[in-house]
Amino acid sequence: MRLATPGRKNGWALFKGLAFASPFIIGFLVLYAWPILASGYYSLADFSLFKPPRFIGLANYQRMLGDAKFWKSLYNTLFFTCIGVPVDITLSLIGAHILNMKLRGQALWRALVYLPSIVPAVAAGFLWRWLLNSQYGFVDEIARSLHLPQPAWLADPLWGSIAVVVVLMWTVGGTMLIYHAALKDVPHELYEAAELDGASHWRRFLDITWPMVSPVTLFQIIVLMIAFLQVFTQPFVLSKDPGLATQSAVGPGDSMLSYSIYLFQNAFTFLKMGYASAMAWVLLIVTLAITLLLLWSAKKWVFYGNR
Amino acid sequence: MHTLSARGALKSALGVAAAVALTVGLAGNAYAQTQITFSYLWGGAEGKALEEIIADFNASQKDIVVKGVSSPDMTKQLASMSSAKGAFDISDNFASNIASWANQGILLPLNDYKIDVSDFPDNVMKQLTVNGQLFSVPIASHNFQLIYNKKLLDATGVKPPTTTAELADAIKKLTKVDASGNVTQLGLGLTDVAAGLKTIGYAFGGDWNRGDKPTPTDAKFVKGLQFYYDNVVAPVTPAAYNKFVAGFGPYMSDQDSFATGKMAMVIDGEWRSKFNTQAGMNWGVVPMPGETPALLGSTWVDVSTIFIPTNSPNKEAAATFMKYLISPPAMEKFSHVLGNLPARLSLTKSAVYNDLPNFTVWLEALNNPNTHGLPPSLYMSEYNTDLASAFDQMLQGLQTPQAAMQSVADRVASYQQ
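ok -> structure tokens follow
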């Protein structure tokens, strides 16, 4: 009987391992690694999708510096993110506390808050166009009945940006349910001990709830930040006149021109795929920088128990 | 005697099957038809009209079968043209994209297909020919004139204007604001902001593309924009104007802003003839008023075109169908159903359009020297997007017309020319 040498045995094991992992490896190389590398090269080229790319160095990146629309789209997107993420987190935490209460029909309420998250974003966008209509919309109608100001949501540049954030908040239920699960994991004894010590509701939230759910908060902030930086559908639908095929501003005063929409315009309307690729890389760098900043700051405010 | 084994029986059966398939294939080949795919952006009534024309073509001959596919997604259309083998053989788009697409090499040059274009006006063909090479053919054309609501004008005693001075006076009389400062009726409005403002620019002798180059700061064009701002927006304030406009329902629906009387006059295209009549309106149309009598009827022409992508698998058959589509009977049927202008001059006198009220104002504009054609240009898509943003800045009252157009001029250098 011939025994396999250790070297041959290891080689065979490696081959089998690679063979089993090959669907992922091939998929990763073809669908992720190659497009990422190609996009990196295209960002340094004049490329339109239909003609071979022509290397132009950093010209696409240089052009961004003087492109007013690039800065406008970046400003709008950071506005959506800086306002939207804290509001989303706050609403989710409040909502999760309510969902955690012992209320009748609680399972139904939990299902209801999640319901908007499964409505297609395009359908929801068109619905919100009518809800925010400054003449016939329900939102302004309710404000009118409460003697509150009735903003021109889809006509005023400032309110246009806020309208996008409002529509994005509609799917807050997803974040809320994750918080709800996190709240369930907070040991009840901690609240009982604090209560015996005479801690108020607010003190119990600050000293027990907030630290205990802080790892989940970090996760939620990063995920939401990435989603808000890439926002496309909601502003695209809100700003689009459904009856016209011609170009129009993206919301009043281009207030809904998100980074992704401008990237899309460059790629598929102006056929400037090289410039769009460069924009994609800048977005990646911005996202990475904010994520690293958040992870660095996490040392100061995220509580991991005994770990 | 040989007995047939199981393997032998299988071989024999396969042999017979192959022979039968070959025979049927060869026989079928004698009657082979080429199937081509016509992917069109239209849907609804337009799509239905096209399907009728496709059915007529399929019934008229036996060599080619056309399969129509309604696909209103322009991004998908463009993506299909980037692959080696195309998903469709023939499609449609607007003339403003033709030069850019031809430059990318994705449109089939048509000079070799001997398409007779002598019946098409120069201002229509201008955008479709790049360096002497034809890349697309027109199936319908469009221009913009001043449409008015007869009921509202009669109630105010206003006569349809013929000069921009009369237009300004009419706007003043027809604009209504309630006690709270909210607009309840605009004297003049725009259903398509960019198309309307460009038309007003021409009415003052301006041109946003003078000398076939982007000229957003053209003095007379800016004067036209200033006219709209001074007479329509400023009197009611930009905030009230934009709040009113933001409440408009979808274009050409039951909530259409002109059909529901929110605007007394509007600058719009010939397709309104059919829509306004179906909406039960009492309406009229006059040539676009000019600053001087010589500028009466100043407008510009937009073109719906048909093209064959370079990656079409069946170019010859697609060209044959293209010729049919732009033949007088097919074009007449198509344009009539849509209420669009035919691209052929010979059809402008056709009696078939007589049932479209006031249609002659747009038809006659096809021969008017004040009707401007656009050049084939690589920058048009980006220029139009920038103009749309600048027009909005102006209407929001955030920038003066001059400053808004200067912001576009600052971007012109980055266009592909």
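The mean pLDDT of chain B is 90.
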